[in-house]
Amino acid sequence: xxxxxLKAQLEELRKTINEHNYRYHVLDQPSISxxxxxxxxxxxxxxxxxxxxxxxxDSPTQRAGAEPSPKFAKVAHPAPILSxxxxxxxxxLRAWLERISRLDERVRKASFVAEPKLDGLSVVLHYKxxxxxxGATRGNGDVGEDVTANLRTLRKLPLRxxxxxxxxxxxxxxxxxxxxFFFKKDFEALNKRQSESGERIYQTARNTAAGTLRQLDPSIxxxxxxxxxxxxxxxxxxxxxxxxxxxxxxxxxAALGFPTAPESVLCKDLEDVVAAYKQWEAGRDALPYxxxxxxxxxxxxxxxxxxxxxxxxxxxxxxxxxxxxxxxxQLLDIGVNVGRTGVLTPYAMLEPVEIGGVIVKQATLHxxxxxxxxxxxxxxxxxxxxxxxxIPYVIGPVLAERKRGARKYQPPKACPVCGxxxxxxxxxxxxxCVNAACPEQxxxxxxxxxxxxxxxxxxxxxxxxxxAAGMVKDVADLFSLTRDDLLxxxxxxxxxxxxxxxxxxxxxxxxxxxxILALGIRGVGWVMAAALATKYRDLDExxxxxxxxxxxxxxxxxxxAEAITDWFAQPSNQAVLAKLKxxxxxxxxxxxxxxxxxxxxAGLTFVVTGTLPTFSRKEAGEFIEAHGGKVSGxxxxxxxxxxxxxxxxxxLDKARxxxxxxxxxxxxxxxxxx
Length: 674
Ligand code: IVH
Description:
- By secondary structure, the protein is an alpha+beta fold.
- It is built from 24 helices and 24 strands.
- The mean pLDDT is 88.
- 2-(butylsulfanyl)adenosine binds next to strand 3, strand 8 and strand 13.
């Protein structure tokens, strides 16, 4: 290629990268995957390495981060906030080691620390005489923004160190560097709240973390569950002897009271690093936060600093990236699910595509507003993301690749299952099928009901069969089923029918708490159902309660309180209650259990994975905590039990590998009774 042609290519690359930067950082609407972006940046770097005279200060390769915003006071960092070079495969990693080994022989015998590469934003925290005095974003690497007030809202951030009496005495001036990010479950919960209240859906956890930390109003930061880990001492006064290795630095920071990533490992050589990488990559979904790779650091800090820096990247550390979890594929069609409460949720039917080892054919589109807002059309290429156990979701269309035939999507005016008109509720984005007789809703409702009341032997298929035969039109109908009814269905013989009748009988005696939960009132999970069952004597009393009374119960907000009273105000629901009463499925409040009573899960750590039959992930966590147990996001030797549901992924493999005991939801509940 001639110089002129190469230069033209360089200009083109810069232009494209700048556009993508803008889409990602300013609009929060990326249209290419991180991997595709990295590829472009690497092509640009390659040209600039060949022709350093073409490097201009405004080239995207010369940027360490965003310029500090005028909204915040500026903070000069005590040392530059460096970035990291990338390795995309094992060959890159080995090439890196070879390069630095040639510069310094000591590298050949060096050990390493492998840390998760957290996908968040860098912050610098300043402690003076042990007191947290200032926190700043990275900004341009030399000057950042003062976000002290916002950082103070992070619960894990120690306002004084050492955080515990036994910790070491820190230097008078200590600057530590860490990463602020969202746990996957918290990001998911935030988007669920946004979707329910008709607010925009956030695309990337990282940008949302950045946006959250840079709020002018700290109460907004406080309302979202940001978290952070530290991994570096950026600067300190020299009076105190500091650790000389990275591994000891992590222990030291933890001893001072900082949260550090528990997954970090000490590796005696590069082979260890490669093995750890493979293990992490396989267990990546099980991590409670998003990682885009592993950071490999020389353990010997003197060697690390002797090796120096190229551009903005220290030679002694590298980011060893994981394969992308974002890919583009074709949107073949849009389907609509009808949920238990009648809510319609659109989903994308995709040209099957592999994302991080899993074949993805469907992805959620959140709600109909989202499709319109992003102007997603059938036939488009779309960017899809799969993060951990979360349902894959569509980020948006790749507009540059839109074909002429791409079709705009019209939300259905009628329920795709029963054909009745759909309705929307004021202040909500969701559309509902409000037909109480909609077979899909009934089936989902009954499925939920029998799962909560633990009617053994009644799966999804049987529920659908009973509904189709006209025998079960609501949950109360279950209790009038006869043996002959069941025998008239395909696939039922004497024994199966007897067993099912027996397990329906057993469900009659379930507690008020479980029956309230089983009714499937929007927003009423395990903990709220328990609170309601404690306050009200039976379903009649709860029926008569007004929104304000319910709202007064701790942990129940006005919108759920309203959902509860709305539910009881529906004549069709009252009819079901009357039938339940007649069928003697009418439990009374149990006397309140002393909160100081035995805590069956005390000292036990649980991990929950997959889709459980009745609990959401959050409810399972609440259940475990209510019984004195701890919930963790990842399986380790310390895990007491793994609670598994459907589609359990790598956590299950890990648990088997480590010999961790495995429970399903029913076994978990049983364990709580002991
Ligand atoms: S060390 C000089 N360690 O990744 C040391 N960085 O792509 C450079 N990051 O700017 C940073 N997890 O924001 C380091 N365990 C970790 C990290 C980490 C995430 C971020 C950090 C850095 C970026 C580089």
